[in-house]
Prior knowledge:
By secondary structure, this protein is mostly helical. The chain is built from 7 helices and no strands. It has helices at about 10-15, 20-55, 60-85, 90-110, 115-140, 140-145, 150-160. α2 (about 20-55) packs antiparallel against α3 (about 60-85), α3 (about 60-85) runs antiparallel to α4 and α4 packs antiparallel against α5 (about 115-140).
Amino acid sequence: MNVQPPSNLPWYRWLNSHRVIRLLETVQDFIVICLCIGLFSFMVLQLREMVLSLLPPLEFQPVTSDILFLLILVELFRLLIIYLQEHRVSIGVAVEVSIVSVLREIIVRGVLETPWSQVLVACVFLLVLGTLLVIRVWLPPTFDGIDPEHFVSERHRSRITDPNPIHVID
């Protein structure tokens, strides 16, 4: 009988070991934390720029653009924080960032100066994003009553509190 000891695991099983997965998750968390620090620093610089744009002479488009850009940065920061907490990307926050980004571009360029075809495409895109946001809230959980986002969040929380979880799925 040819039985390999655990130290001689085949490469495909070694990659699936808990230690390797935890190491990769730790490296990924470190990268996301670095992104959070960089984004926060950029938000502080953008806030300074916004305060300077509020000084006379006050122009509507640059001030509005700076405010909306800062809101986009705040939402991206929130998206990274949710990722660090739950190890998933929040679709709702991502859609909100996309909506604010499109609206910012329309406001910065001006609707009257933008070609009608681009305004039409932006309207359709906003309609699709808004529909996605509404449908996501109204639809019942998928797959026979299992909410995938809730399931992933609970699994991650149980992994943090219990180092050796044994879960039975009905």
